Amino acid sequence: MIRTIIDCDTGIDDSVAILFALRRPEIHVEGITTGCGNTSVDQATDNVLRLLKLAELSYEIPVAKGAGQPLEGTWDGPVVRVHGPNGIGGVELPSSEQCPLDEPASDFIVRMARENPGELTVITLGRMTNLALALQKEPMLPKLVKNVVSMGGVIYGAGNTSPVAEANIAGDPEAADQVIMAGFDLTMVGLDVTMKTRITRQRLEFLRAHCSASNRRVVDYLHGVLEYYLGYYRTQDFAFDHCPVHDPLAVLVAIDPGLVSLKKLPTRIECGGQYCRGKVVVDERPHHFDAPFVTHCLAVAGDRAAEELLSTFM
Questions:
Q1: What band does 310 get if pLDDT is binned at 50, 70 and 90?
Q2: What is the pLDDT of residue 237?
Q3: Which of 83, 242, 246, 296 is catalytic?
Q4: Among residues 9, 177, 192, 247, which one is catalytic?
Q5: What is the CA radius of gyration of the chain?
Q6: N or C: which end of the chain has fewer CB within 10 A?
Q7: 9 an active-site residue?
């Protein structure tokens, strides 16, 4: 059983990842923390609460609101063209009676790690701001959590917010670099693999036609948000009927690392520069720079990962 805290900036792919995690029997979600990124922290928090209501769980998962700004600078605002006006493709879900905790996300992460030493996997689906703030409050955090799996970065491919940087890392490179330098058992699931893991409209329609009655409302939601996502990638990447699986792949890797090829590399984050801010820098020289080794996903069984993701909702 994987006991996890999911940290997210609840856009379309975050929402798919959360619902996927809630449906997997080998995962127990101990809490969800939110931050700004795809949308505002308030909207991200509201989206999570609505998703938990949609999932119709038999137990309540605590939700803690986190950072509304990066460690340095200011948040650039919601990415409406990618994630819609409300972060989830404009799909309207019923409001939830559940309220977020009074406890900030960073305090929640620290408290849960102290109460469950060595037990928790932190899965970050957005910027690493909340984790960096938690680390500032508890420097022993890398020894208190079991491991961290983060959707973020790109090593050998193109970025999606600059030629070399991926959005989650570029949105708060100082936070990402602090997390890397702290020495967590960290696996980064970047664009090298998420862009090669694709949901097709054909698979989505098959799921809608054959899902169980208990999953009908969730699958209808998935169809709605992914239609918006498909539309964005059709115009952005000339993808006729498919879209990448970013955040859900991080959850899949946490469950089954065998889906990806992994390599440990000395890693830092570029925090300066006009063109390279947010770039994940790895050193493959025999005499590499002095930096922690981070596990990077460099190849993926994309079809198998996409099928496992969607079949969970059958």
A1: very high
A2: 75
A3: 246
A4: 9
A5: 18
A6: N
A7: yes
> What's the mean pLDDT in 111-139?
98
The pLDDT assigned to 83 comes to 97
Measured distance CA(299)–CA(54) in Å, rounded: 33
Token couple for 247: 């955040």
Q: What is the DSSP string of 12-27?
A: HHHHHHHHHHHH-TTE
Tokens matching residue 179:
């997390």
| DSSP per-residue letters across the chain | -EEEEEEE---HHHHHHHHHHHH-TTEEEEEEEE-SSSS-HHHHHHHHHHHHHHHT-SSPPPEEE--SS-SSS------HHHH-TTSSTT--PPP-S----SS-HHHHHHHHHHHSTTTEEEEESS-SHHHHHHHHH-TTHHHHSSEEEEE---SSS--SSSSS--HHHHH-HHHHHHHHHHT--EEEE-HHHHTT-EEEHHHHHHHHHH--GGGHHHHHHHHHHHHHHHHHHHHHS--SSEEE--HHHHHHHHH-GGGEEEEEEEEEE----TTTTT-EEE--SSS--S--EEEEEEEE-HHHHHHHHHHTT-
pTM above 0.70, yes or no: yes
User: Is 246 tagged catalytic?
Assistant: yes
Confidence of residue 240 (pLDDT cuts 50, 70, 90): confident
Structural domains of the chain sorted by starting position, each given as residue range(s) with its CATH number in brackets:
2-198+240-311 (3.90.245.10)
Q: How far is the C-alpha of 302 from the C-alpha of 245, rounded, in Å?
A: 9
Strand pairing category for 2-8 and 242-244: unpaired
CA distance 112 to 5: 9
Q: Tokens for 51?
A: 């998703």
